[in-house]
Amino acid sequence: MADPQYKPFPFDEEPRRATPPSRPAPYLEGLNPEQLEAVQSLDGPVLVLAGAGTGKTRVLTTRIAHLLATGKARPSNILSVTFTNKAAREMKERVGHMVGDIVEGMPWMGTFHSIGAKILRRHAELVGLNPSFTILDTDDQIRLIKQLLQAGNIDEKRWPARLFAGYLDGWKNRGLEPERVPAGEAASFANGKGKELYVQYQQRLKVLNAVDFGDLLMENIRLFQNNAEVLAQYQHRFRYMLVDEYQDTNVAQYLWLRLLAQESKNICCVGDDDQSIYGWRGADVDNILRFEQDFPGAKVIRLERNYRSTANILGAASHLIANNKSRLGKTLRTEDEPGEKIKVIETWDSGEEARQIGEEIEQLQRKQHKLSDIAILVRASFQMRQLEDRFVEIAMPYRVIGGPRFYERQEIRDALAYFRVIVSPADGLAFERIVNVPKRGLGDTTMQMLHDYARQNEVPLLEAARVLSSTDDMKPKPRGALRDLIASFDRWSKQLPTIPHTELARIVLDESGYTEMWKNDKSAQAAGRLENLKELVRSMEQFENMQGFLEHVSLVMDTIEGGDVDAVNLMTLHSAKGLEFDTVFLPGWEEGIIPHQRSLDESGRAGLEEERRLAHVGITRAKIRAILSFASRRLTHGMWNTNLPSRFLDEIPEEFIEKIEGEGSYAAQLQSRFDRAEPFTSGYSTPGWQRAQARKGGGFSERGSSRGGPLTIEGEILARSSGPSAEFEIGDRVFHDKFGYGEIMEVEGTKVTVEFDKAGEKKLVASFLKKA
DNA sequence: TGATGCTGCGTTTTT
DNA sequence: CGCAGCATCA
Question: pTM for the whole thing?
Fold first, then answer.
């Protein structure tokens, strides 16, 4: 990722002429031979196997620059797809650095879904949609399925809507039309009604003029398969294709790519089979493993020189991943120093593990290490809890990455539902969501009436409401409320073309009583929700109109970036993919956690291998320092469980490791237990578990030191220590931004113990509390 | 319609 | 244990 300065791009001087080979273009400087080959092999299928930290993004972006510089392609002839919006943004930015404003003329750089949506809108009629179709989110999808289950008299207890949503997702990931769904799978839902429900679901989507995420690709495939001329048009347009993170593609994406690449065959896929960690959501590693069969004559290029990590880190990661059977095989190498050994910390329990990590971080901090260069990567989010508790106690600023996303919050979705109804009155799901939010006395009975009428007369829900509210079939109270609501929507719809959309948004939230509702809410989060609504309206300014904004929102469900506060990063291994940090902590290396028990139970050896890849991803995030740890006892759903060290620890050769016993680890006890019970932890079970120099000296840290600065969680201000902390006495009522209201139980120096009404008893630094 | 209590569940997540 | 989702009751 550490790119040297890019040289100016020669596009302007020689727009259409190939750069003579004798004088390599400046942007090619500094590439190693393999990277250079990957960049320059422009024609024909190419698979770039790019290990962690080998500069794959650089290859991808330089390749685009090269395509443009050599005149092989114009910007609009290049299709480059990524999975996430973040990756797409980064690519755009980096290509922009090389080629300047030309990047703005690259309309086909984006996620699979956004490109799919773009193509679909142009040809919507061909698949039975109106170009203004809406894209449903998971909430809408679940609501729709629930309606179908009710209509079909299916017991929602036995066959939850979520389960069916999972099936649907799985089918669409594999590109399966209802007729193609394997009989067994279709039969396993609701006594054989699976296929029928799938058909009904698709019919309902067409009526609603909506698609779900899976359809963005499925409908594309349908479009291409049934309209040869449309397909030909795109095959011709996309003369060069680039795919990032190819190991994460699912079958539908693969089919889509194959259709488009059939003509030109100029497809370049970049990926790493050793970083495939999304098998459970449909990613098919086989796509990468069989690339050479799919694209005969494909050139395979391996990037094995790592520019990120020290030799010790790389050695550990390489040996670990070498235990996997299904892989194409790469050997990462570096010219870096060995660097520090990987620390493996053994602790007595998970609480001590959290304390140790806290102290290690405090030590690093004393050496001027920036907190934001530190990450703690956990397998599952329940592991975060004890870490967070500890950090709160010692006032260590931290940030949780990848928590609930901004656009997924209740208040945001409600607000969006209002906007959606205004823009597309046929959007029954959006209407249903907010019809009684805030409370208007429009309950189940009313909704049932509306649904019945809408179905019988095949009109949108809003239309049904309009008709029914002017008849005598309804009781006066709901009738009046409904009429008011419809009148409001009519008014807002009229204002849509005349008033700036941000202004309209404010008006809608105000006049609907939505803002009022949260103002009257006394819960701890209400203030935050109002703040989020303001942020939402503010973020709308960057869009031309409401429609544009809604399209963005449905495809770019982004988290709002947390502030630039210096804080430790806490996240799952999955969300760490693609990131790098100077120091990486990997807690919970225990059997059952990593590898996760459920993975083992449900997917056997394949599951184990994916877990191992996850472990490998974790280690390779570290640039200079990795600290693994495991605890013998762990608090899980209120119960103490004993755990054995992860088998992955034993797969890392001793030479890369420095073993450390945490304070208070009962070495002797552990020792004897491991000796008896543990078959695969030889390294840790035998007397070979050496007493390395303990990380003493930092044993007693001066905690609660004035670290200041706001603490953030999920990008929100968690707590602020504003100068000298307020004085508290036992019995004081206090407020904490995360834990809510509570009462002071004990005071010791800067720290207090608080009994929170909701969150229970916590010990924390007083400066994070306000008087209530 | 709201409040309250009970049951069941508990891995990873993007679009 | 803690939470979410649902059912039941007032």
Answer: 0.82
Say if strands A374-378 and A267-271 run parallel, antiparallel, or are unpaired: unpaired
Per-residue pLDDT tens for A382-435?
999 999 989 988 989 999 888 777 888 888 889 999 999 999 888 888 998 899
User: Residues with Cβ < 8 Å from A696, sequence gap 6 or more?
Assistant: none
- A451 CA to B15 C1' in angstroms comes to 29
Report which of A458, A339, A416 is spatially closest to residue A135, judged by C-alpha positions.
A416
Which residues are within 8 A (CB) of A699 and not within 5 positions of it... i.e. 6 or more apart? A359, A663
> Dihedral through CA A528, CA A530, CA A535, CA A538, nearest 10?
-170
Which segments of A123-193 does DSSP mark as H helices, in order? Answer: 138-151, 161-173, 183-187
Spatial distance from the CA of A278 to the C1' of B13 (Å):
9
Q: Which residues contact A96 (CB under 8 A, 6 or more apart)?
A: A103
* Residue range A60-93, pLDDT digits in tens: 999 999 999 999 999 999 999 999 998 999 999 9
What is residue A703's predicted lDDT score, i.e. its pLDDT? 24
Can you tell me the distance from the alpha carbon of A508 to that of A464, in angstroms, rounded to the nearest whole number?
A: 22
CA-to-CA dists, residue A260 to A63, A171, A228, A693, angstroms: 19, 21, 11, 59
Residues 143-172 (A) near nucleic chain C, CB < 7 A: 156-157
Taking the C-alpha atoms of residue A255 and residue A225, their distance in angstroms, rounded to an integer, is 11
Per-residue model confidence as pLDDT tens digits over A624-646: 999 999 999 998 887 888 999 99
Residue A69, H or E segment: helix A56-69
- A363 contacts A534 by C-beta, under 8 angstroms: no
Q: Give dist(CA A136, CA A554) in Å, integer.
A: 7
Residue A345, phi then psi, degrees to nearest 5: -100, 130
- CB A139 under 7 Å to nucleic chain C: no
**Short-list A538, A544, A552, CA closest to A506:** A538
The CA distance from A551 to A81, in Å, is 18
Scan residues 624-663 of chain A and list those with Cβ within 7 Å of strand C: 637-638
Residue A497 CA distance to nucleotide C2 C1' (Å): 48
Q: CA A356 to CA A361: how far, in whole Å?
A: 9
